[in-house]
Amino acid sequence: MTKLRYKVFLFGIFLLFGVSMAKANVNDAVLVMPFENRSQMAQYNWIRESFAILLADVLDVPGITLIGDDERTLAFRQLNLSRSDLLTRAAMIRVAEGAKANLALIGEYDIGGEKENLTVSIRAWLIETQAGRLVGNKVFNFSGPLADLQQMQGQLAWHVLYERNPSLPYTKEQFVRRATNVPPRAYESFVKGFQTQDQQLREAFLKRALQEHDSAGAPGHYGRALFELGLLLYRRADFDDAEKQLKELTKDDLDYEEGLFYLSLAAFKTGNYESASASGETLAGLVPLPEILNNAGATLVGKGDNARALSYLQRAAANSPNDAGYRFNYGYALWRNQNLEDAVQQLRAATQLNPRDGEAWYILSKALTAAGKAEEAAQADNEAKRHLSVYAKWAVEPEKIPVLVRVKEDLNGVALGRFLRRPQQAQPVGPSPQQISQQQSLDRVQQLISAGNDTEALNELQRILAGDTANAEAYYLRGVVYTRRNDLESALRALQAAVSWNPKLLEAHITLGRIFLARGDRTKAMAHCTQALGIDPLNRDAVALKQQIEIGK
């Protein structure tokens, strides 16, 4: 039974058990809105965002996930709103829908009492965005000393989770302990630093949060403060200190993956390619987004490991074939690795995407010269003279040409958040409604392909990928359609994207192997055949492909 058929079989079994299984294992996405300060004391406005910050830490459990700050910011921007605005419930629901959340947590708080004995009262509501109704018809109320704010927020987090799935094995006390593991003064300083736009003030608050955490004798480290300070230092081009801060993060920290991204960049900027590539490869193994794959490959080129870099750069270019930087990096690494024919192909693509790219023209001319194509090399060299300001300098002192790989300095935080919340992270027992809908769409595509309706199949696949850009099976099916149409370039791009998102997609490796064998590229054909046999050594199609490659047919 092939992997795709096996998944369809499992899907049918899930449906046989009924909706109750899926309902008992919901995979909710919650957007926490800024709470409204009902008091007249602006000095406590910092509490507005503290709910989203703390719940992001506490609700890091299977079955429920919080929409990240990047996604929430994007949703506000799309509606031309600011997080400082006082919004109606309808507006809050629109923001949540824009962030692809099925639940919105909204609320308000009031500050009372004397200066030495301040109190806070909190009211919160959990709203189903699609229906616009109150979950459980409940209002969550908490009140007590302001010093107990984190404790109350921990209780709120538990109530949100319990309201959605009472069977999960967590106690209120566990959530309160998680919510209060940062000393109150350090927590307040961090929240203030996180919100301010003044960079000097932000740095001061974050450093104070770290100092207050250590002074209070709290165990471990304050991961969120470390990350935000490291990110601030990186953006200020203080790369050595940024690297020092970000290295402190561990796998248990909420910002670990994003920290690896900027740690790799900081090390790359200082020329520490060993550290840069180690961080880059670790992250690429966890989150294979195009910019992450590109940077992993780029740092390996900086290290001089061109052969290892190629696997990452190929996947980045396959995922985003219209990105001139990705195509340049892939072509550049191929040239350095003496894969001249493939290098020329990628570098030509880079110059077509950006005709003013002097570096791409320069390396293309070198690749063409090495490949013995003197006339084409001269044409590329002329273009390099036109567009490369340092051409004369490089011609006189070629030994001073720097490493030319290009790193991406901006991480798509929205895509990162959605990838980390993909269903396999929560490991639900049954499929979510989104998974059911997606599988039904994939089943429809397979029916359309079987019926020979390629056009409608491609349209349906485009709709699937618009909602889930990391859907490996959708890319694979797109590759199947293009292969049948004999559009092999499009098929290769789709199939390479499929195996980049799911390296264990056996059928995609076999199809890639067949295409490369038909083109006479036995090396690449065998590479994909070997990966297929590594997944299933007894697969008949993979074994037959290996025999065909070995006998040269």
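The record above closes out task 2.4. Task 2.5 opens with a second protein, given below.
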Amino acid sequence: MGFGNFNKNRGFKLHMMACIPLFILSSCGVEAEKTDHKLIQDDNDWFTSAQETLQKNLSQAPITGKAKNIILFIGDGMGVSTVTAARIFEGQQRGMTGEENVLSWEEFPNVALSKTYNTNLQVSDSAGTATAFMTGIKSQAGVISVDQSIILGDCASSRNHHATSFLELAEQRGMTTGVISTASLTHATPATAYAHVPERGWENDARMAQAEKDAGCKDIALQFVDFSYGDGIEVAFGGGRQHFLPESVTGPEGESGKRKDSRNLVSEWQQKHGSGQYVWNEKMFDEIDPEATGPVLGLFNPSHMEFEADRSADIGGEPSLAAMTEKALQILQNKDEGYFLYVEGGRVDHAHHGGNAYRALSDAVALEQAVKKAVAMTNEQDTLIIVTADHSHVFTIGGYPTRGNPILGKVRTNNIQGEPEEDFYKALDDKPYTTVGYYSGSGAKVDQPREDLTDVDTTARNFKQQALVPFRSETHGGEDVAIYARGPSAHLMRGVVEQNYIFHVMYHAIGMGSQL
């Protein structure tokens, strides 16, 4: 084929200085000029939508100015498979087939992958992973904001090995701060913001050996009340009230406190912050005055807050994660110094551990609503928002279901004409199976055949997905998790990064890191 035919077939004009082989054109000063052409698929909706995405990305410029505010959202246990399933789940709740749905953070322009291992575990726990993105260093599993040199559970070894958290740093810089979790405020992920212990289980003093107390370590709830960086945490919402109350006190929902030291840390917090507002139910939450000058503490459950699917049945009533995020931002935005808000959808993880995809996806959607609220209340030019997970779970999606098949349903696949089958697709044991399931967990059977799901409503709230390896509690997954970012320095979230890198992007965004 001559160069003339090449021009015609490829839609290019070649201006040549000499007749030279095609494979060295690029090195001989040849100018390639593209001409208009039309592809057969130009009018296809998928083609045009992809072109729109391309143009949007081509016009996207990085925001390189300093961030005034930072919001870090953590979906505890929200691996990529959970995000995909939550996208479909939320879309199907709104009458869509689901696959085409877009979650709020999926609109963010920057995405990276985070490697989640701990210094001593290939598949991580929440304490070590949260320590990574909150302090900028990797550490062991089971520790809260201390470095990897300590001995797990040994107070003395942790002395002089505390790592400054980003929240502590923000307070030192005069920023206002907030911590929100649907888990207990003393649980691993939120605790990394304000506490330093060599054992994540030390949520109250009763969980500590006397020798560790004598060595000078404080439990996590006490460290929250004693927090003294800057002017203190301005807003904190979550569960875990039992860790703040002594055994002699009955809480407002009939629970007994867990503390053995007779200290009522709720009362101590109120005495310490005379102008502060303490709330424990949704009515009191709704009455919070965001204009008030004092800090706000909300402890809405003796233990973890309810799953989103069960929230309406709570005795005292609990605010949604979106409502807590909105209220926290109203409080933090009252001051001009900038803020750092740390928000955890903590119960995605707990539902996965229970082998219950319905609650896990419902809580992931609740986090999505909180992110959507934050996006609406902030300016991309001055607020860095990051959405990520601490780790994944062994939660899977598969089995060739037809487009739009209920994400929690049994698999119906397509026939040889590519159309949906009426009957459920069967595995080799001649039983139907679900699109989502777990590698391990309580949904597995020990020395029993797999349950026949033909007449089972697998989309029900209490259904436990089937699993392969039997455990009382499903396990974490070790694959990378996604990081989504928008705002100042968000463009630095790219590639495959170590999890502790997240801290360094936030550190850089507020003007503390390298400006190279």
